[in-house]
Amino acid sequence: MILSACSDIKNKKTSDSEQKAGNDKLTSEILEPEIIYQPADGIVKIYGAGGPQPAIIDAANKFQEKTGVKVEVIFGPEAKWTKSAQNDADIIWGTAEQGMTAFLETYTEFDSDKAEPVYLRPAVIAVKKGNPKNIKSIDDLFEPNIGIVVVEGAGVYNTSGTGVWEDIVGRKGKLDDLKKFRKNIVAFAKGSGAGFKAFKQPNADAWITWNYWVIDHPDEADIVKIDIDRIIYRDLTLVTNDKADPEAKDFIEFMKSEEGWVFFEKHGWIR
Q1: Tens digits of per-residue pLDDT, 80-109?
Q2: pTM of the prediction?
Q3: Among 239, 220, 227, 6, which residue's Cα sits nearest to residue 102?
Q4: How far is CA 167 from CA 162, 225, 229, in A?
Q5: What DSSP element (H or E) covers 212?
Q6: C-beta atoms surrounding 64 within 10 Å
Q7: How confident is the model at residue 153 (pLDDT cuts 50, 70, 90)?
Q8: CA pair distance 227, 244, nearest whole angstrom
């Protein structure tokens, strides 16, 4: 299994209501028409945003061991892999429905009708190891002197965390909750990788994130579960197409299988 990691930040802009002739797909400004899509090379290449990759890498290793088919997992901010993906992606993964929708404006060989939600994960509160501020719920984040990190796309960055904190805090319809919470935000991070870095800073006590970031970094954070009446879930979606290496469909089926599920369950996904 070949692994590639990407870490730079990119701003993704969507063009105005530009449409491809003959269909309703929007296209993005990072779509490069001169790139020729040629995915069939004997290697299953799967691209997506950072976060879910530990489970996907585990599944890819097992799939390669069983079948001998090479799988390359490329992850991180889209700016680092978009040109490669436009050329040779066999599979795209999305970390939220809105994220997959944005991806499909660029990777136009993939069809929204073929994108499939496969697993879910919950948002959580990540706190510093040992939970020194004794944070037990979202309500504790409304108190003074609590530094909070949130992930926010700011309308230009394709991240699964866009709007999650507002959904959670505003869930009860109390404007005062949002006012108190917002006053405590110390970082609006573009992407979960940037969110994790901001969370490590001394002025940060809590981070609204996905459970696997804590599960996969147990020495650096603890999980505080979000109350059932506020919790938000977003999904992992997968999509391939008929031009891709045929083994791409096999790998998707493996990830969805009972054997593949073991790797996702280990990293905090549910179904």
Answers
A1: 999 999 999 999 999 999 999 999 999 999
A2: 0.86
A3: 239
A4: 10, 15, 11
A5: helix 211-215
A6: 16
A7: confident
A8: 42
